[in-house]
Amino acid sequence: MSHVIRFRSLVLLVLALSATRSPVVAAGRQWIGTWATAPQPAAPGPPQTYRNQTLRLIVHTSAGGPAVRIKVSNTYGDRPLVLGAAHIARRVAEANIDPTSDRSLTFHGRGSTTIPARGMAVSDPVNLDVASLSDLAVSLFFPETSDATTSHSLAQQTSYVSADTGDSTAAATFPVAKTIRSWPFLTGVDVQVTSRGAAIVAFGSSLTDGDGTTRDSNGRFPDVLAARLQNHPGGREVGVLNEGIIGNRLLAGSPGDAQFGALLGEAGLARFDRDVLGQAGVRYVIVGLGINDILFPGVFTPIADAVSADAIIAGLRQLIARAHRQGVRVIGTTNPPFEFATFNGKDLGIYTPEREAVRVQVNAWMLTTHEFDAVVDLDQVLRDPSRPTRLLPQYDSGDHLHPNNAGCVVEANAFPLALFERR
Prior knowledge:
By secondary structure, this protein is α+β, with helices and mostly antiparallel strands.
């Protein structure tokens, strides 16, 4: 009888392990991104530091799948990052999770890992039924002093930090010490889908990142596009990844000054391979860069940095060529209007006729030359017909530059879903 009991215990153990762990991609399946965010350097000044604390980071999925893995980034760290433990689970409310869905994550079979400076770690996959358009909680424990030199500043999502009381990654009711509105270290969540699946990367600036939308609403235009696709029979295995960064430019990196430092990220041309072509299952990229190249000189950077429409067009052509070499289709988006634009409530003279002329010229090139695989005219759907140099008031978040939630809905609705049908 004891042999039978031991055998049954062994069978139950094997079944339990197989229910949570999936060491290889199943036959006929592939990985695609369901959520992602672009890594950014820290803002000027001392970075946020965590020690003997757990972060519970909330993310919203696009596509679903039966297995999942995460990406943890130390891209801008100048020393190794020690990750003591990591878990993933379905979020129930606020910082709390469904304990039956909790999965411990490993890295090369180990529950902890050290990520080298400038490096990234991808977890081993686990079996978890990830629903589309749902919230996941990714919990990361940092036993040693860990500076958040790699983060995403404009999460527009509330996440949670424990007190310095040790590993809380498995806690169903999370011991919240404070909330944050950034995503430190976490840069991606992938799911398994069939070979018909694909990922779309929205690559842009704050207009893509969701500046102007309501926090915790998942109201960014890539979120709304993801919801449309999930409600469309041909789009259920299509992930939508947001790789927007506030203040990001196509041709130049962050100004590096006392106000912004390196926060606004590397130039789009510099980060394209990592943030777009490096995503799992990417087949499409939506490009929304160029507006800050037009707006920054003379406002946030010296006027001598002013760029011509021809320079922006040359940069966009580079992105198109690099994507096409990898078999990725490129969808351009026109730059919306910005008359009366303010920054932190101040009129800094952002709008000028000269900057407007560059915007109009770049948009005209996009719409008439057919160098992109497709172009979606966001300018047309957001502008005020009675004054085309400004946003329609009902879509204006208040700074006359960034669309609100309603504006993001009309942006997402401007994309024909046929653009994303696999050929």
